[in-house]
Design a protein that fits this description.
Number of domains: 2
Distance between the termini: 91 Å
Radius of gyration: 26 Å
Strand order of the largest sheet: 3-4-6-5
Strand content: under 5%
Number of strands: 6
Helix content: 55-70%
Structural class: mainly alpha
């Protein structure tokens, strides 16, 4: 039903076409805060941003060539277009994985630019008929000014995306992951010229669907640092695909469609994560597309709709393991429950699950070949622990268990009496946005609107469509999985909930808007208020910035070993490091050698001239996940007692020390 305020006034389309980019650019400049930063960001947007759009067009070209055979009849054009782009992004990601794994020296721009070029040609050829008949309207409704809110969100996204990786948000939390593996693993693959097993970084065994696109960006730009901004901008591609899909799937001309886009675009979590090289925006995208195709399947069950749903779920799983429990599981469960009424649909559920496994399978196969465990480092008791030692396996298992366990091994001064917040305390702290919970974005104001919409669903049981109950079911299952099966209920894991929350809130606003003209006005004011609140919350990321950790400010040399620290992205290629779950090369040396001189000789034979020890991080890890006894702080100090201290930061206790191997004197001197 068309509920837009088309009788209030008209706006020339060309005015809107100029206004929205201008708003985004003004927001970008204000968020960065200086003319120089804005100029640098503008160069990145015009170069890397243009390349990112070419990748998106190419993805659409490849994806449409596949989707055209599975496209359900009378499907919304925009939803199909977004779905084709989502499938195409999975295809490009999987192609990078296969080529990089099976051949050396092909992670280069000379291969991948032609691949992108072919995709662009496919997109143009397949859309030529549509482009000929496309006639944009001369005027649009005044309600289209609502797009100013998403335009501001785009400006904030670009501000974050054009900052150096790790400069937005809480650097001890999400940016740690960016510098440790989201960008570091693609960088190591690019430098090696192939995708190999990285036993010093367990996260290389995760599904890396988004990271393969980051690697593609590095290939297209001809360098890991040259391509890091293109990699970050690719995160925004998923946001753009999601917005187009939501607009097409919920109604291009309906108030519900516009409300959904505004709420999703202005959600603080969406803006925050889009500014970092994180994978969650890809999860948002595939979950939203999966839910929109679920709507069509519930209305008119069809094999093709089930296939497309499965493709979206499988693509989400190829991005992150958690998608199995937070995306694929809940959506398939809703389909299964709906099938109890009409049992013929059960075959559709099995088909969706099979397609999801098919798209997820490249990562399962890769892990099986590398470790013998298709979901390594998960389910090690069932499938094996790969290269992990018993201690490493126990450290991973206990460190990721739903309840808290002592570190592996327990340090001498560990106290198990420390009280951790209960699940209910963490839930209410997250919902209320308490700073004591996490210094990360709170849920959007759209969540409050969603709560009202959910109450109305129960009040108007007979008038609520099956799809909204399905979306609510997905939301409930996500919250339950987050509360009972994740360690400490990390806030970022439940950020996926903004998708069902926004869709539910938009449905509630539409129900209000259809009442009368006054209710339409109230619905618009509520939407603007929720969007404005999200934008104002997101604005704080740029005007209350986190400071970079002091140990990362040190100018480190080219031949270095990191101990405790594992954020190697900004350090020279070949830097020796290991995550807390992987065995550090020094641990094996210390087990074999008791003499500091023998240890020094072995380190020297590795070509290492400097060692960076983060004492603060060692202490944190020892009292959380665990730290190897052979690399205790005491043993390390004894080992490096004969090394020269180049730099050291000490407050109440030493934070870090940079050691240098003393040069041997020449006997002839």
């Amino acid at each position: 039903m068309n509920t837009e305020c088309d009788k209030i006034g008209k706006v020339p389309v060309w005015v809107l076409a100029l206004l929205l980019p201008a708003v985004a650019m003004v927001t970008l400049g204000l968020a960065l805060g200086s003319v120089a930063d804005f100029a640098n960001a503008l160069v990145i947007v015009l170069t890397d941003g243009a390349m990112a759009l070419l990748v998106l067009v190419a993805a659409g070209g490849y994806g449409w060539a596949v989707l055209r055979f599975f496209r359900p009849e009378q499907s919304p054009r925009l939803l199909c277009l977004a779905t084709a782009a989502g499938i195409g992004l999975w295809m490009l990601s999987t192609a990078v994985l296969l080529v990089g794994s099976l051949a050396d020296g092909l992670l280069t721009m000379y291969l991948w630019w032609p691949v992108i070029g072919v995709g662009v040609v496919l997109a143009v050829v397949q859309s030529r008929r549509t482009l000929r008949t496309l006639k944009p309207p001369g005027k649009t409704t005044l309600a289209s000014l609502l797009w100013i809110l998403p335009a501001i969100a785009v400006g904030l996204w670009l501000a974050g995306a054009t900052m150096p990786p790790g400069w937005l948000g809480n650097l001890t939390m999400d940016s740690y992951d960016v510098l440790e593996y989201h960008l570091q693993i693609p960088r190591e693959y690019y430098n090696a010229g192939s995708i190999t097993t990285l036993n010093h970084n367990v996260y290389s065994h995760y599904p890396l669907g988004a990271e393969m696109l980051f690697l593609l960006g590095m290939c297209l730009r001809g360098g890991s640092y040259d391509g890091m901004y293109l990699a970050k901008l690719m995160v925004g591609l998923f946001g753009l695909v999601m917005m187009v899909g939501v607009l097409g799937g919920t109604g291009l001309k309906d108030f519900r469609g516009r409300a959904s886009v505004v709420l999703l675009a202005t959600a603080p979590w969406a803006i925050y994560l889009s500014g970092l090289a994180m994978v969650e925006p890809a999860q948002f995208c595939y979950l939203a597309l999966g839910l929109l195709w679920l709507r069509r399947w519930l209305t008119k069950p069809a094999v093709k709709s089930a296939v497309v749903i499965g493709a979206m779920l499988g693509a989400a799983c190829a991005v992150k393991y958690l998608s199995v429990a937070l995306v694929a599981g809940p959506v398939l469960a809703v389909m299964l429950i709906a099938s109890m009424v009409r049992r013929r649909r059960i075959a559709h559920v099995a088909l969706s699950g099979g397609v999801a496994i098919l798209l997820f399978s490249p990562w399962l196969i890769r892990n099986t070949v590398a470790t013998g465990n298709p979901v390594f480092p998960l389910a090690m008791g069932l499938f094996g622990q790969g290269h992990f030692s018993d201690e490493s396996a126990a450290r991973w298992r206990d460190g990721h268990a739903p309840s808290y366990h002592p570190p592996v091994p327990e340090p001498a001064d560990y106290s198990p009496s420390e009280r951790h917040p209960s699940r209910s305390e963490r839930f209410f702290a997250f919902v209320s946005g308490q700073k004591s919970y996490e210094t990360q974005p709170a849920i959007s104001a759209g969540a409050m609107l969603a709560c009202v919409a959910i109450i109305l669903m129960f009040v108007r049981l007979r008038e609520t469509g099956a799809w909204y109950w399905g979306v609510l079911g997905v939301l409930v299952m996500q919250v339950l999985v987050w509360m009972f099966f994740t360690r400490g209920m990390p806030a970022r894991f439940i950020a996926l909930a903004i998708v069902p929350l926004s869709l539910l809130a938009a449905g509630g606003l539409e129900q209000l808007a259809v009442k009368n003209h006054l209710c339409k006005t109230i619905a618009i004011l509520l939407l603007v208020s929720a969007g404005g609140w999200g934008l104002m919350s997101s604005w704080n990321y740029f005007h209350d910035p986190a400071q970079q950790d002091p140990q990362m400010r040190v100018a480190l040399p080219g031949s270095i070993m990191l101990i405790g620290e594992s954020r190697a992205f900004y350090l020279p290629a070949g830097t020796v490091y290991a995550t807390v779950f992987d065995e550090h090369p020094l641990a094996g040396i210390l087990r074999r050698s008791d003499s500091p001189d023998e240890v020094t000789d072995e380190i020297h034979r590795m070509g290492i001239t400097h060692v960076f020890v983060s004492w603060l991080e060692i202490d944190r890890l020892a009292h959380s996940y665990g730290w190897p006894e052979e690399m205790s702080a005491k043993r390390l100090r004894e080992t490096f007692s004969g090394w020269e201290v180049v730099e050291e930061l000490s407050k109440d206790r030493p934070d870090f020390t940079l050691y240098s191997l003393k040069q041997q004197s020449d006997p002839m001197d």
